[in-house]
Write a structure and sequence with these properties.
Number of strands: 15
Shape: elongated
Helix content: 25-40%
Structural class: alpha+beta
CATH architecture of the domain at 160-262: 3-Layer(aba) Sandwich
Order of helices and strands: HHHEEHEHEEEEHHEEEEHEHEEHE
Largest sheet: 8 strands, mixed
CATH superfamily of the domain at 160-262: Periplasmic binding protein-like II
CATH topology of the domain at 160-262: D-Maltodextrin-Binding Protein, domain 2
Number of helices: 10
Length: about 300
């Protein structure tokens, strides 16, 4: 029994289909199907249900995947340790990014990572939905928030974002600049809807208080929220880093300069270590080391469990 065929089986499961695995690894579908069939014959079990068009593991297939995934990951890590620096890390990564304006910055880091490890292929999923990482075969997700509802996941800090209130000069000229939380409640605030359906109406106002806002426009797209604000449709609450581009060009004005900005943390989220491939471990280390090189974060090496978004 070849470890390469077991690894191919893992790759097919992670890719979600024979067709996608064929495209990712540039192997003929017939070749993959034949090798999986040979593996089944050697094991004397069925790994996949073949009566369904969708790729579905049998109970034996699920057990075989879970047991051998950790074993091969450990074997690959051991080989890398013994053979380094000549060993080349390979594999396929599925990374979920939030559809935020600074996605390009993270994208550039991923592209640089791919240049360093040319045998690793990457699939980027741009979605604000809190997808189940295991069920959707997502290796790493990047999210923003303070707590994580799924305590089975590991979340590691890799940055932080400060938020503030902004509007256009034209909107302020027409409606006036609010001076208090009570005045903000009387104005139109463009609000964000989270993937779970919750509308972000209870906004931070300083470090220890919040304000309940309302408005006639709700969206789940940060770029569209910014565009609506630029069209003088209301006040927005967005990261300073994103807003600064528009502030420097005179398109937006910051409101409430006297209150302390709200801070949210950025997290690198992934499943339990026992299911991490060497490619995933290498990517996580790369991102954290890159951030550590650009920012002074004393707790960057500590795992944080039970944090939610």
């Amino acid at each position: 029994m070849k470890t390469e065929d077991i690894k191919l089986f893992h790759q097919v499961v992670d890719a979600g289909s024979l067709v996608r695995a064929s495209e990712i690894f540039e192997l003929p579908k017939s070749n993959i199907s034949r090798r999986i069939k040979t593996l089944e014959e050697e094991l004397n079990i069925l790994l996949f249900h073949r009566q369904n068009r969708a790729l579905q593991l049998t109970d034996s297939g699920i057990k075989f995947y879970e047991k051998t995934k950790a074993m091969l990951n450990e074997l690959e890590a051991s080989i890398q340790e013994i053979c380094a620096p000549t060993y080349e890390v390979s594999g396929h990564l599925r990374i979920q990014l939030l559809p935020l304006p600074d996605t390009l910055d993270i994208g550039r880091q991923i592209f640089q990572f791919m240049d360093m490890y040319p045998k690793i292929s990457v699939e980027i999923i741009n979605s604000s939905e809190d997808k189940n990482l295991v069920e959707n075969h997502i290796d790493v997700a990047m999210r923003i928030g303070e707590t994580l509802e799924d305590s089975s996941l590991i979340a590691r800090p890799f940055g932080k974002a400060t938020f503030g209130y902004y509007a256009t000069p034209q909107y302020i000229e027409k409606n006036g600049a609010p001076q208090s939380a009570e005045e903000l409640q009387k104005l139109n605030v463009i609000r964000y809807r989270f993937p779970n359906g919750q509308i972000y109406s209870q906004l931070p106002f300083g470090k220890e208080s919040t304000v309940e806002v309302s408005g006639n426009l709700i969206m789940n797209s940060v770029p569209l929220i910014i565009e609506a604000c630029l069209q003088n449709r209301g006040i927005i609450f967005i990261p300073e880093k994103v807003a600064n581009f528009y502030v420097e060009r005179g398109l937006l004005v910051r409101i409430f300069n006297d209150i302390e900005p709200s801070i949210n943390h950025c997290w690198l989220v992934y499943a339990s270590r026992k299911h991490l491939s060497l490619a995933t471990r290498t990517f996580i280390n790369y991102i954290l080391q890159d951030i550590d090189g650009r920012e002074e974060m004393s707790d960057i090496d500590s795992d944080v469990r039970g944090m939610t978004l």
